[in-house]
Design brief:
The complex is a heterotrimer of chains A (about 220), B (about 550) and C (about 140). Chain A has about 220 residues and is mostly helical. Chain A has helices at about 25-60, 65-70, 75-100, 105-135, 155-185, 195-220. In chain C, helix 4 (about 100-110) crosses helix 5. The chains are: A mainly alpha (about 220), B mainly alpha (about 550), C mainly alpha (about 140). At the A-C interface, helix 1, helix 2, helix 3 and helix 6 of A face helix 1, helix 2 and helix 3 of C.
Chain lengths: ~220, ~550, ~140
């Protein structure tokens, strides 16, 4: 089959140590990984989407119950957490910008701030959860809060609340692990404007976590 | 690019078990998948034969009803989640896709290996449930029964949840590979149709599987914490489970059949040595099936108590699936017209696919009709329909694909004589097993029944069931013959040439079996995948 | 192969700070607007509109969808489209489950004793509940629809 196969010319110059053997150049590798990350983000959207669908259906069935039940959530803490996450999103975006400008120290600094914000978010979430647990405001059969007289099935709201925020919290933890790994590699000097796709992966993922919270906050805390 | 010596190929070098278990080579991962998937098929087939033996006569034969429930659940779960969903993409897809694109590997080789290990873990959880008392819910895990059943539903659903990751990894990997790793000069419309079919499949895997993930997680939470969202006593709704389940599992039907169609496009063009008719329409119809497939899940729920309005909408959209499917069938038949057809074993399977899949597809139209479905729902008519699609479609295409690419994968020719004998067993056995189940179902025999001795028409049912059971044995013999001569070919088969069938796609341009780096010289795209009218036969 | 545009140019710092500040302000707006009672549905629509505006800002600017290859935006949109289709089509069912069409429902209910029994039982139950003086809402269980 000499017709199909022709000699492609000279060997490619093996540019960067981070270039995997099966890619032609850094550009192809960068674009491939980024495409993979976006596909991954789509799977995340649909994973959470199932819960959003539950929310929509049960809210449409029980508007009264949702209005009553959501008042047990602390708007102030939710709003602070929203601001914390948005701030961390800004710093995550700036971390990518810094590495594009070949400033790894700045990148490390922004990553540290992002991680601190993530930790703050989880601490606030911990206080919210522990308050709910003490008051027996729990999902499903475990729900034993007595001061919601005359509201049918309020536990459904809290099943959805805990499922949504719990899954989101797990994603925050996952994001912290990945960003922590990126931080270590940044400090080791692995990344430069030539090769920074892991920083960008972490950033994109973190923005998605933020993006989901942007919807969770009003749905759960504000309009119930 | 460093080339390996001419006598070395990906099978022979490097050696040792560790070199296989830690390989990043898509070809080796494909073979590792092939081994596990064949084992899963054997296990699922064992359960199938046990079910058929139990149903051979009316009255209880050798297993009680609880065992029977567990057996058909295991048959369904193993065949669907462990065999048919990963079958073609993870084995032939893994092996052929980068070769067909002229790439050195898939875009993410580590993710590819990870998907194999995730599959192993998921399979372990799924099968662990067998040890701890098995599951009797059916493979669909419908609530409220699944939330109440005391069998080990959690282990199996968690296993299926993990298997979902394996499926997503494969799909994501393929989408990126197809977008970014094509050989220089190859445009979208110059890709082999196998690649288009795999692309459509991968898109579904990426879009649908996460919803199954969240559904199964919620089912597990419902069973452990009692969160109540599927429990009507607590204000929940069990029918929602069906919506969520079928939002994945209906597109999953297309995860199963689209790769089968993808293989058939290759087999028909190559073995009739003719340019495929309607290339673009076949390519587009794969994508159309993938997208339309997301909008029809409710046709599984016509009798579930969902609103009449949605039943109407779902029934209406369901008919549209027939259009792209019909386009494919007609294009394949037109390709055959005046082609130089060689009745090789792969081609026999391709022709069988055209017959069996058409029967399966058309009976699907019956079932999509709102009124008729009320009568046929949960009868053997449904069983026959989806076996004609899944087995007559996907498994037949898989067998055709295995025979087509076997010389490329292992560098050995199998016995053509025994291949044709086995084909006769498979084709006859399959129709003996399932065709009469259409009659059985339309006469009112419900599916999933352990014993039909109490039903009126028991005598009629016994005749059909008995015949079906004999057919299953013929089918089983067919599979044993295939396993025997394929394995034997590895030891004493003739060495295969690089291009035994005269294919024009890239994988036939490299040696059989290919070297580790796929191509000794980087391939350049010179002619289309089916340009039999332009490329002279002596150059193939 | 796809065209290679050089993608290593960084965007100006002012853009990040500006978008961040807008997101902060919009968070304030959504919290305040939720305190004003416009009716349950209007509040929901307002809050979701603001959230969508915020999410778009994050996706377009922080996630660079505005500047990157349109392929990423397309893929993300397909995901969102599938999610929307899922929610909307599922709600075709859940919102209309008792919507047997009237002209048929009357006929069915006259002819089928099954429905008669159900209606009588429901009426008896409602009477019993009324008698007990309990102002409980309809059980939201769809089984009751």
């Amino acid at each position: 089959m000499e017709q199909v196969v022709a000699i492609a010319g000279e060997e490619h110059h093996r540019g960067h140590p981070a270039l995997a053997h099966h890619f032609h150049d850094m550009e192809q590798q960068h674009e491939s990984i980024k495409l993979g990350v976006w596909l991954f983000l789509v799977t995340e959207v649909l994973l959470f989407g199932g819960l959003f669908c539950f929310y929509a259906i049960y809210r449409a069935w029980n508007p009264e119950m949702f209005t009553q039940a959501h008042q047990l959530l602390d708007v102030k803490l939710g709003a602070i957490n929203t601001l914390v996450l948005i701030f961390s999103s800004v710093t995550a975006a700036l971390a990518i910008r810094s590495i594009q400008l070949d400033r790894p120290k700045q990148t490390a600094m922004f990553l540290v701030v992002t991680l601190l914000c993530a930790a703050t978010f989880l601490v606030i979430k911990y206080f919210e959860y522990s308050h709910k647990i003490h008051a027996h405001i729990l999902p499903g059969e475990l729900f034993a809060y007595t001061h919601l007289e005359g509201v049918a099935n309020p536990h459904i709201f809290f099943s959805i609340y805990f499922a949504m925020t719990g899954l989101h919290g797990l994603h925050v933890v996952g994001g912290m692990v990945f960003l922590g790994f990126v931080l270590i590699r940044t400090l080791q000097g692995t990344y430069s404007s030539e090769y920074y796709i892991p920083v960008e992966m972490g950033g994109l993922y973190w923005h998605l976590v933020d993006l989901i919270w942007i919807y969770l906050f009003p749905l759960l805390y504000l309009v119930g | 690019m460093h080339s390996s010596p001419p006598d070395q190929n990906f099978l022979s070098h490097p050696k040792g078990l560790a070199s296989w278990l830690f390989t990043l080579d898509h070809k080796r991962i494909g073979i590792m998948y092939l081994i596990l998937i064949c084992l899963a098929f054997g296990l699922g087939g064992f359960f199938a034969l046990s079910i058929r033996l139990e149903l051979m006569r009316s009255g209880e034969q050798f297993m009680d009803q609880d065992t029977y429930n567990k057996f058909f659940t295991l048959h369904g779960a193993v065949m669907v989640f462990l065999f048919i969903i990963p079958s073609i993409p993870a084995t032939l897809g893994n092996f052929c896709l980068p070769l067909m694109l002229g790439a050195k590997d898939v875009a993410f080789p580590r993710l590819n290996l990870a998907s194999w290990y995730v599959y192993v873990i998921g399979a372990a959880f799924t099968l662990f449930s067998v040890v701890t008392g098995a599951v009797d819910t059916g493979w669909t895990f419908y609530s409220p029964y699944s939330t109440q059943s005391s069998t080990s539903v959690i282990s199996m659903t968690f296993g299926v949840f993990i298997l979902g990751f394996s499926s997503i990894f494969t799909g994501l990997n393929f989408v990126v590979t197809i977008h970014k790793m094509r050989a220089p000069g190859m445009t979208w419309y110059q890709m082999p149709l196998f690649v288009w079919g795999t692309y459509a499949t991968s898109v579904i895997q990426v879009l649908a599987t996460p919803v199954l993930g969240i559904t199964l997680l919620l089912l597990i939470l419902e069973k452990t914490l009692g969160i109540g969202i599927f429990n009507p006593e607590m204000g929940g709704d069990p029918v929602l489970f069906q919506h969520f389940f079928w939002f994945y599992s209906h597109p999953a039907v297309y995860i199963m059949i689209l790769p089968g169609m993808a293989i058939i496009s290759e087999l028909i063009a190559v073995h009739s040595h003719k340019k495929i008719f309607g290339y673009k329409l076949i390519a587009y119809s794969s994508v159309a099936i993938a997208l339309l497939g997301f909008l029809v899940w409710g046709h599984h729920m016509f009798v579930s108590g969902q609103s009449e309005f949605s039943s109407m909408v779902f029934s209406f959209i369901t008919f549209f699936i027939g259009i792209p499917t019909g386009i494919k069938i007609f294009n394949w038949m037109t390709t055959l017209y005046k082609g130089q057809i060689c009745l090789t074993t792969p081609m026999l399977y391709a022709l069988a696919f055209l017959i069996l899949f058409t029967i399966g597809g058309l009976t699907g139209i019956f079932l999509g009709a709102l009124g008729l479905d009320i009568h046929l729902h949960d009868t053997y008519f449904v069983v026959a329909h989806f076996h004609y699609v899944m087995m007559g479609g996907t498994v037949i295409a898989f067998l055709g694909g295995i025979h087509h690419w076997w010389p490329k994968i292992f560098g050995k020719m199998y016995s053509e004589f025994w291949g044709r004998i086995a084909f006769v067993f498979i084709f006859l056995g399959f129709n003996m097993t399932f065709f009469n189940q259409f009659m059985l179902g339309s006469q009112g025999m419900p599916r999933r029944y352990h014993d039909y001795s109490g039903l009126y028409k028991t005598d009629l049912f016994e005749r059909y069931h008995g015949f079906s059971s004999y057919g299953a044995m013929v089918l089983g013999v067919g599979f044993l013959i295939i396993a025997t001569y394929l394995i034997a070919s590895l030891f004493n088969g003739k060495a295969a040439s690089n291009n035994p069938w005269g294919g024009l796609t890239f994988e036939w341009a490299t040696s059989s079996p290919p070297p580790t780096e796929n191509f000794r010289e980087e391939p350049i795209f010179k002619h289309g995948p089916y340009d039999y009218d332009k490329v002279l036969p002596e150059n193939i | 192969m796809d065209t290679h545009d050089h993608h290593h140019h960084a965007l100006p710092l002012s853009m990040y700070i500006g978008v961040g500040a807008t997101l902060f302000i919009l968070t304030g707006v959504t919290v305040v607007s939720a305190q004003i009672d416009l009716g349950s549905t209007a509040n929901l629509i307002l809050a979701m509109s603001i959230a969508t505006l915020k999410a778009s800002l994050v996706a377009l600017f922080f996630m660079h969808l505005l500047y990157d290859s349109k392929l990423y935006a397309f893929i993300f949109s397909v995901g969102l489209f599938m999610l929307t289709a899922f929610i909307v089509i599922t709600m075709f069912d859940t919102m209309r489950r008792d919507g047997i069409y009237d002209h048929r429902a009357v006929k069915i209910q006259q002819e089928a004793g099954f429905y008669k029994d159900i209606h009588e039982a429901a009426a008896a139950e409602a009477a019993a509940v009324e008698a007990a003086g309990d102002g409980e809402h309809d059980a939201p269980a769809p089984a009751a629809h």
